[in-house]
Amino acid sequence: MKRVLKFSAVAFVALSMTGCNIYRQVVLPTPYYPQGQQSSIGTPVTSQTAEQIQEQQNQGGTNGFTPTPQQSTTTANVTSAIVQRIPFPEAEYSSLARTGTGRVVGSIYLTTPSGHKIYGKQTRLYLNPVTSYSTQWFEKSYLGGAKMSKVDSRLFNYLKFTTSDNNGKFEFLNVPSGSYYLIGVVKCGTECGYDRVKNIRIAKKISVFGNSIKSVDLTKEVK
Known about the structure:
alpha+beta, Immunoglobulin-like, 4-stranded antiparallel sheet
């Protein structure tokens, strides 16, 4: 036995002197995944939450992510965050007068915290008749800030348009009696405290009677 040990030691020293390396092969056990689980390498992610998908959509898309069948319900729940418009009420709109003798005049502008006025120059304004359809938009989108589904194109047959001048003044002619949402947009950037130009939407409910002149300022305070 002593001779064997002595021979092994001599052989080891000899191999070391000749520059040979001795490697040990390490064998790792095969990974074990409990039933119903899989390795995260090379397999689709199926536990993505609705919040993660929503965050990706807010960033301009799903980053190439394609929902699996298991995720279709989750994705549907996210898209349901868009408020669906009610069916277009044809009866309500068909009963509206198309022409009238009223006028709506005024100015459109923003007011900064310092009291400075930013006028809407050469901006588009329109009168939207008050109906159940437009009221849903006013309450859910304008006041509530929700995103809504695509508007019915038939609505444009009942809107009245005008454009303001360089001082923000506007005028609507031949307006029928009734109630309307007066809507316009003012562009504002650094003067309103923003780092880039933004479109600030303003809406207000007004009423017109007979051949009267409705004078109104369409304004909003920038906070």
